[in-house]
Amino acid sequence: MKVNKAEELVSKGKDLLEKGDFRAAEKAFAEALKEDNAVPTRNNLALAVFMAGEPRRALEILEPYLDPEKEDAGATPFTFALAARIHRSLGQEEQARRRLQQAVRSFEEGLSKLRRSLGQVPYSFREYTVTIMLAAADLGDHRQVFELYRRWEPYHVSWENKFLAAVACFNLGRYKRAATLWSSIAQVSRLFSGMQQVAFLVERGVIPPFEMSYERYSMEKMQEMMEEAATSEEARRRYTQDGFFRMMLLAWLLEGDSSKNAAQGVYTLVYYGGEWGEKLGRQVLEYPGFSPSLKFAAVDALMARGILREGEPVPMFIDGERRLVEIKKTPVLMEPDQELDKIVDRAIKLRDEGKIDIAVELLRGLHREGKLYPRAMMTLANLLRQKGDLDEALNIMEMLEEINPDNPVFLFNLSSLMLEMGEIEKAREYFNRIDNPEFEKEFAENLKILEREIERYESVIRWPEMIMQAYEENERRKIEEKPLPVDASLSRGLKNMPAHWLEGACIYYGLEPARQRRQREEQLREFLSRRDNLEKEVGELEEEERELLKYLLQRGGWSRLNAVTRKFGSLEGDGFFWHEREPESFLGFLWSLGLVMVGKATLEGRRVKIATIPLELRQPLKEILGI
């Protein structure tokens, strides 16, 4: 009973650790230790105390295992690795390196013993690789972090191994390898796709190199940092020097290149980024891939730092070519101006007479004279649209949006221009930002016309997608119709799955998919037949997915499909090409991994759809799920 209670407390402590509630985790592990004085429990207690900010007390908890005269004290590779991290946090680098060497040696010796005695290495032992790599990362030893990753690559069980290896490669200047590693864990977080982009751009010399930390901030933490930076100049300056924050901001602004917030991000990085920020600013100006709004933000930051001066020609790639652009500060004339209105009215009259080129030159002349009058600029942008000079018109409208981002007229024209340029999503985005309940009748009518046009284009765009969705749903239903006994084996269930589903499952489990489908079936059968693999994968499932497994197991391992879908949701909308896009339903996801199968069985003389857990997985799943 005591052991069971200890296991429950340890499980609770691990959940609390995952959530970042270190004090509550410490309490759970301490209570578990009273029930069963196990080495892993003491390790976890020390980890919780260390993460709560008490490194010296954490070291005291590990002391019984660290006596050099007691080689059989029970220390694990995790014990030594955690001790290394604690020593490093206390500034004791020599001790930290010694403990790291002990951790590596202990892991290697453990590998050798386990391979000889069991012929395999349990999941729980393979988990130690993350903590050992973290210990090397804390010491800033990028080369050793990557060397440990490569040395133990067959034993890694967590995406964190690849993340740490990617950071090490990035800091070593091996940007292509870093990008490949981040790409391989992109399914974990969209952030890693952004990091991949940043690594490629650093490799190409577009973004200046920088060193990032191994510590990952949660989305909640990043949100807090962003909010603090928005209100505090000191915070902006401090966070811009943080390698991980810098990486996050770059990844984010590359994704939302044309947004106002992205421009603010560029300004922050350039203005507060010191020498690196200056290099970034100049690269933004010269690289064709950055939008005009980001280039203007970089110019503003460089001018604010005194690096660029008004009237100074600056190399810039803009309007499809590299040129020297003279920087000028042009005051915005927001108040109505009768003289300027006369010029705008004259330009409109010239337009009506078909003299568009003359009208354009007249309004361009105002801008060359340093008179930035919004009504004149909006008229110029619309004239350029009529001429087909859409990119120049867009540059002007984006400039006007910077001046007055909530102006409904500017937003209306931007939405119209985006529609004309075929940017339907951006057209909708700008349209949805128009917010004023008291529009004049004519403008309100124009808004209705624009919305109908956007809806028409949206429906045209969605039509091929709708056809494809219908095709995918039909193809998946064909698989659901295949014969499947209620007590089907794993091999039998895998035979019903399309080849690309097998490929997707292999990739998800970290297996290199074999060329022939028969070999893929064998890969998956062997993988799922190993208890440690099954335990790991079940541990990473969502709570609802585990509940679905329990539901089936409590009913003998299978159930009619309609009963399952009533309780856990249907497969509708899950599509068919699961190697490209994972199914969204709980049942579909479990099916895609081979943990549950769907098909038609003969029950009481009728063929009905069922969901069933492969026969040989039922007992181990019962044990893992505590049934």
UniProtKB/TrEMBL annotation:
InterPro entries documented for this protein: CellSynth/LPSAsmb/PSIAsmb (IPR051012), TPR-like_helical_dom_sf (IPR011990), TPR_rpt (IPR019734)
SMART domains (UniProt xref): TPR
Residues forming coiled coils: 517-554
Ranges of the TPR repeats in the UniProt entry: 374-407
Domain of life: Bacteria
Keywords recorded for this protein, A-Z: Coiled coil, Repeat, TPR repeat
Signal peptide: none
Pfam families attached to this UniProt entry: TPR_16, TPR_19
Protein name from the UniProt record: Tetratricopeptide TPR_2 repeat-containing protein
